[in-house]
Amino acid sequence: MGFLGFIKGFSSVYRAKPRIRVYPSFCQYGYCHIQCRTFSHFKDHDDSVLPVLIVGAGPVGLVLSILLTKLGVKCSVLEKSKSFSHHPQAHFINNRSMEVFRKLDGLAEEIQRSQPPVDLWRKFVYCTSLTGPVLGSVDHMQPQDFEKVVSPVSVAHFSQYKLIGLLLKKLEDLNFHICKPEGLNGEPFRGGELLMGYECVKINATGQSVNVTASHLKEGKYTERNISCNILVGTDGAGSTIRKLAGIELRGEKDLQKLVSVHFLSRDLGQYLLNERPGMLFFIFNTEAIGVLVAHDLMQGEFVLQMPFYPPQQSLDDFSFETCKHLILKLVGQELSDIDVIDIKPWVMHAEVAEKFVSCDNRIILVGDAAHRFPPAGGFGMNTGIQDAHNLAWKIAALVKGIAPSSILHTYETERRPIAIFNTALSVQNFRAAMAVPATLGLDPTVANSVHQTITDGVGSILPSGLQRAILDGIFTIGRAQLSEFLLNEKNLLGSSRLAKLRRLFEEGKSLQLQFPAEDLGFRYLEGALIPDSDGVGAQEQPTGRRKDYIPSSDPGSRLPHMNVCMLSNSSSEACISTLDLLPGDKVEFLLFIAPLEKSYHLAVAALKVAEEFKVSVKVCILWPTETIKGAEARSKTALAPWENYIDVAEAKKSSDSSSWWSMCQMTEKGAILVRPDEHIAWRAKSGLDDDPILEMKSIFSAILKV
């Protein structure tokens, strides 16, 4: 299916708006429901109503709670589990997410210190066993990935449960309290609580608030508790209860693949791979077993093995701890004495996006996997969710602080849903690329899935279950015979041809990719809380499934380009920071970039005046060419008086032939760039303004803030 065909699967608009609908619940209470009515204003004066309630304490929910707390918005988090899982799950953190983490009080630096050295995870290795012949390897790191030219921070490899541990520490530093049901005595939630063991079972959205009923087990009995909030955010994962209670459907491709995930420890295996063939992912194909091994930490010997799973002919009982240990040894290729299987979980790979992200008059919002479910190929799931939270946080804060009306929240869907659809398509393409490797070796997964479907739903469905299982096992055994040493070697004509084709696949970048810089940093919002250029918006590029370099852009909706700049001050030392660091993480503040020109100063004064009327903060950044910084501060002080919310900076070029700021942005120095609190460009003037700057800035802020 091509990209445009894939997108069609998401194009149907959800129009039905029932007053009351009832949906089955996955809790023992039988049924949960939601009642939607319109609301007239944000209820911020009632202490019994929590401004924001977040349901789901995965990485996305925790990041959102930190961002909101830093912005001064009271929030609490519900998590249905009584404790946090130690199953590693997601592990790749892309550039943009690491940039977000830089604003969370040193989180990015902590991750970089704690993660394994990059040389231990930069490669994907393809082999017949972990100790046997290597079919090929792909290095996913390029020199520019470490030069910090396009971003102030590099990607990271860090297991999800470790990330959650760091996020919880950040919340505790912000005076958040982690509570269990037995530790609460019915007092109202004031914000700053993470409530473990609470499951949302009912939602009633009235004209003034969202009333949430949560159940918890206390002293052996299930008890319900009611919580009122102004905004309910569902960050509760792919099987989101909030999404189901809100009656929001998913659109896309279901059941791309069923797998079993085996979490295990083996320091011996870790040491062997560390010394002999380090990598992040190991794709193992032999006559006895097939699997993908994720090396979460070679030094600690922590792994997750992913294996295809074909129910109902196979059941989870077929993957006992002993069976999994046996399969691991088959894939390793030699005996290991220290294999410790920790956990075994089935899961299903989907490629779906919610038909809407915001519902009930902007009161109920879906974020992260609750809003979109991707194949894990490329690591877009958690990263897209983190960037969802980053987009949403400042908008909620703007609403709570009276800067913007509730319609600002709908721009979250307008902006993020197209990104989710694009990333879904890209993830599917990358998953298909991963499947190209076994197909090249004579093991086409689409054939295996077709055979399984025929046995399950076609003519084979009339056969006894035991016979179905035997047929499936027999066909898979015949398929794996394509991987025998007799066939898969350079002396065999067919084997030699397949190996040559496999090498070309790796060389041409047509196998599974890890990094997508152009998409990670270059994604762009085409409409929403921004003002497109007057010459129109260019068409969105189709995903190619290949790595493409990021090209800096100042187009409205784009992430602000990174450049190192030196702050000019009266002190003898000049601190150099990224342009991204000029925006704070603890206030709703816009940033206006100008050059030190008379007309640009007039525009800046107009922006500061208008921002005061709109009750929003704006900081002006005057960007000076390196050769003209003498007297910069005095000149800006005179031009902007009596306003003081400005900063003078100079370009910190790495070399004399480096592009200037305005050249990199493909603008003249007469232009101006207005940046949102989430570091995305809200508006720009490529070569200055000819109209009244006051009227222009009023129009700009009105359009962005939806006032």
UniProtKB/TrEMBL annotation:
It comes from Populus alba (White poplar). InterPro entries: FAD-bd, FAD/NAD-bd_sf, RIFMO-like. The keyword Zinc does not apply. One of its GO terms (molecular function) is FAD binding. Residues 51-420 form the FAD-binding domain. Residues 535-556 are annotated as: Disordered. GO terms for biological process: ubiquinone biosynthetic process. One of its GO terms (cellular component) is mitochondrion. It comes from the Eukaryota. The lineage of its organism: Eukaryota, Viridiplantae, Streptophyta, Embryophyta, Tracheophyta. This is FAD-binding domain-containing protein.
